[in-house]
Design a protein that fits this description.
The protein is mainly alpha-helical and 148 residues long. Helix content is 68%, strand content 10%. The chain is built from six helices and two strands; from the N terminus they run ααααββαα. Strands 1-2 form a two-stranded antiparallel sheet. A hairpin with a 2-residue loop joins strand 1 and strand 2. The longest helix is centred in the C-terminal third of the chain and has 24 residues. The protein is globular. The N and C termini lie far apart (38 Å).
Length: 148
């Protein structure tokens, strides 16, 4: 007995999930000094956007619990990659920012991912990727604006 083909939207999200899992696994194998993809994600977030942010805001941005984000931030702080200070406007709150060492680590990570990106580029041209990116961005924007 053959099953009916799944709807295209379901197949799309299934593929995205598998791609995310495979990409995270490959990424973590090349990250320096046992850095996890979640930690790299935080470093990359600060490198792209700059500034400081509270742990709760970061947890919301990454769609993780405050506890999970606190754990990630503590590990990064222990390595000197982020700085956590009291919020001058609210002494009970914390502000997190990337350190110079964190920026350097993020750059090292990007360098180590380079060969993986180059390898992918032999299979997918910039033109092909350029056709897919707007669709993925539209899906991301939709999902981001329709969070629960």
């Amino acid at each position: 007995m053959s099953l009916p083909e799944d709807p295209p939207a379901f197949r799309l999200f299934n593929e995205i999930g598998i791609i995310e899992q495979l990409a995270r696994n490959r990424l973590e194998r090349v990250l320096p000094e046992g850095l996890k993809s979640s930690q790299f994600g935080v470093l990359n977030h600060f490198a792209r956007l700059g500034g400081a942010s509270g742990p709760a805001r970061l947890a919301a941005a990454f769609q993780v619990t405050k506890g999970a984000m606190t754990n990630t931030l503590q590990r990064l702080e222990k390595r000197g990659l982020v700085q956590i200070v009291a919020d001058p406007e609210d002494g009970r709150a914390k502000l997190v920012s990337i350190t110079e060492a964190g920026l350097n680590m993020r750059d090292r990570c990007v360098e180590r991912v380079g060969p993986m990106i180059a390898e992918l580029s032999t299979e997918l041209s910039d033109k092909e990727l350029g056709r897919v990116l707007p669709i993925l961005e539209k899906i991301r924007i939709y999902l981001d604006t329709h969070r629960d």
